[in-house]
Amino acid sequence: MRSLEMTATWHEEEEDVEVEEMELRKHNNGNNGEGGRDDLTESSSDEATGKKRRKHGGSASSGSASSGVTIRRRKTCISARERNLRRLESNERERMRMHSLNDAFEQLREVIPHIKMERKLSKIETLTLAKNYIMALTNVICEMRGEEKHYTFQDVESNSDVELETEEQQTNPTTAREQNNNNMYQQNLESHPENTMVNSR
DNA sequence: TAGGCCATCTGGTCCT
DNA sequence: AGGACCAGATGGCCTA
């Protein structure tokens, strides 16, 4: 439905040009070929999210497109109008997909115990904390079984004795704050494993 | 103002 | 064949 509305704002190319005959030169990284999409991206972003207006919604850049290579499509016999419509529909699907992904991130944030911050956890922080949370819980289980701990956590006080778990942790600028959260997991889990199942909200 | 984070568009590839 | 998934690119917003 929305895609139909968006179609109305699309700058139509020549009517019913067959793709087979067209040489589709994909616009080159933001500079070329944007004009025809401005109307589309502005209206679609606005209507779809009610949030940001995207003056330029990014440009095709993957594969050979980035080098401005000329591509000739195989027989498809799709009109330009039809092609535009399909593109708008897949844009819509992609938006919905990303929204559902964000919803999942939000749900994950809610179940991860972490120190309350003014701003919400970023995606990378959320994933990292979730991983650490799982590791900490695994350690607790191992401990309860009398087994050796599977994972080790870095000690914030002295970074010398314990290795960082991943390369990502070594390069992540938010490592310090996350380590605080990690320590909280560790201390909490080791003293009161049952508490960690309580939502931090 | 630079850098981080994010939403969005886009085309290629994979999957059903 | 069409939809889902993915990665690259871009621009906006926010913060240090």
Automatic annotation (TrEMBL):
Entry coiled-coil feature ranges: none
Compositional bias of type Polar residues: which residue ranges?
Answer: 169-181
The record's listing under Gene3D superfamilies reads: Helix-loop-helix DNA-binding domain
The segments labelled Disordered in the record are 1-74, 155-181
Ranges where the BHLH domain occurs: 85-137
**Ranges of compositional bias, category Low complexity:** 58-68
Question: Can you name one GO molecular function term for this protein?
Answer: DNA-binding transcription factor activity, RNA polymerase II-specific
Q: Which GO terms describe its biological process?
A: axon development; positive regulation of transcription by RNA polymerase II; sensory organ development
GO CC entries: nucleus
- Which InterPro entries does this entry report, sorted A to Z? bHLH_dom, bHLH_transcription_factors, HLH_DNA-bd_sf
Do you know which SUPFAM superfamilies this protein is assigned to? HLH, helix-loop-helix DNA-binding domain (SSF47459)
Q: A Pfam family for this UniProt protein?
A: HLH
Which stretches does UniProt call biased (Acidic residues)? 12-21, 158-168
The record ties this protein, via PROSITE patterns, to:
BHLH (PS50888)
Superkingdom of this protein's organism: Eukaryota
Q: What is this protein called?
A: BHLH domain-containing protein
